[in-house]
From TrEMBL:
Annotated family: Belongs to the glycosyltransferase 9 family.
Coiled coil: none
UniProt xrefs under Gene3D superfamilies: Glycogen Phosphorylase B (3.40.50.2000)
Protein name in the entry: lipopolysaccharide heptosyltransferase II
Domain of life per record: Bacteria
Length: 353
């Protein structure tokens, strides 16, 4: 069967996905776009957080930010965005999300070629349609995005997700840590107790604190607590359990600063979340705690990562909030996570020796 030829294009708009973790998992697909059209101008249309995440990514020439809670809110906001995009004269739109809205704006912008998945009643808005086959067993999200583009002849070699920070951003993160009394040789243990999707994905702050207490003590590391603006109360519990013997950055970093700080970490312990995928993309060793989500689809793509999870009859339920007793998370003990971290660290140390 002959390989499908990609459409001709010189100015390409990629409509990005909406969650940080999902955006990290699209980066192999973005690189396939770059390799298919090495001389084209490739733009990403994304929300403010994802725009920050993929700023300066080598697969992209420019990032266009849309704000559905601000200037692009509602129908008139979408029309304003479409008018702005129309002036850019794109040849092709690659639509990675499955929502109706994500296909509507490129349609209103008059982009002549609009490729995406046939879903959510939006087929008439597309000029090229991908119908996902039933997968047994289910595939990882990274592979899904690559399959979506490959249907249209947009391919590249298999690769793991990849992110980029600039040397200036790394230097600024190092200077910030120095201001906090953390020198360049000090190991950092990152703790990410949040998960924006919902409370069901969150392990317990007291248990995160116990893990941090044991591992930081053993490894001579400083503990850094990460979290978004809506997760400060959770992180405050860990801070209290550690008696302030940590650096609490919850709600205090931009996405770009978060990326640089995670890259600086020696090890990360995290829920299934955007920061988990960021750490994996930078090759930071990590332990990821999974409960209601399906690890076959969203596991960290890294040989330096291990997952801690329990098989319970109601998981993966993929719910935002647990309607019962949260047994998928209560079953995971702090000692179990500590043991997983030690085992991974020992394995990596053996590889280095």
């Amino acid at each position: 069967m002959s390989r499908r030829q990609p459409p001709a294009a010189q100015r390409i708009l990629v409509r990005g996905v909406n969650w940080l973790g999902d955006a990290v998992m699209t980066t192999p697909a973005l690189q396939a776009v770059r390799e298919t059209w090495p001389n084209a101008e490739i733009f990403l249309l994304a929300n403010p957080l994802v725009s920050q995440l993929l700023l300066n990514h080598p697969a992209l020439d420019r990032v266009i930010t849309f704000d559905r809670s601000g200037s692009h809110k509602g129908l008139f906001g979408r029309l304003r965005l479409a008018a702005d995009l129309r002036r850019e004269r794109f040849d092709l739109a690659l639509i990675l999300p499955n929502s109706f809205d994500s296909a509507l704006v490129p349609f209103l912008a008059g982009i002549p070629q609009r490729l995406g998945k046939a879903s959510d009643g939006r087929s008439l808005l597309l000029t090229g349609r991908y119908r996902e086959p039933l997968q047994e067993p289910p595939i990882h999200e990274v592979q899904y995005y690559c399959n979506l583009l490959a249907h249209f002849g947009i391919t590249g070699p298999a690769r793991d997700p990849f992110l980029a920070v600039t040397p200036q951003e790394e230097a600024e993160a190092a200077a910030f840590l120095t201001e906090q009394g953390i020198g360049p040789e000090t190991p950092l243990l990152g703790i990410n107790a949040g998960a924006t999707f919902g409370s069901a994905k969150r392990w317990y702050p007291e248990r995160f604190a116990e893990v941090a207490r044991q591992l930081a003590g053993e490894w001579g590391a400083r503990t850094v607590l990460f979290g978004g603006p809506g997760e400060q109360d959770i992180v405050r519990v860990i801070d209290g359990e550690l008696a302030g013997n940590c650096l609490n950055l919850a709600g205090k970093t931009s996405v770009r600063r978060l990326m640089a700080l995670i890259k600086r970490c020696s090890f990360v312990v995290t829920n299934d979340s955007g920061p988990m995928h960021i750490a994996a993309a930078f090759g930071v060793p990590l332990v990821a705690i999974f409960g209601p989500t399906d690890h076959t689809g969203t596991a960290p793509c890294s040989e330096r990562a291990v997952i801690v999870r329990h098989d319970v009859e109601c998981a993966p339920c993929k719910l935002r909030h647990c309607p019962t007793d949260h047994r998928c998370m209560t079953a995971i003990s702090a000692d179990e996570v500590v043991a997983a971290a030690r085992a991974l660290r020992q394995s990596l140390d053996k590889e280095m020796s």
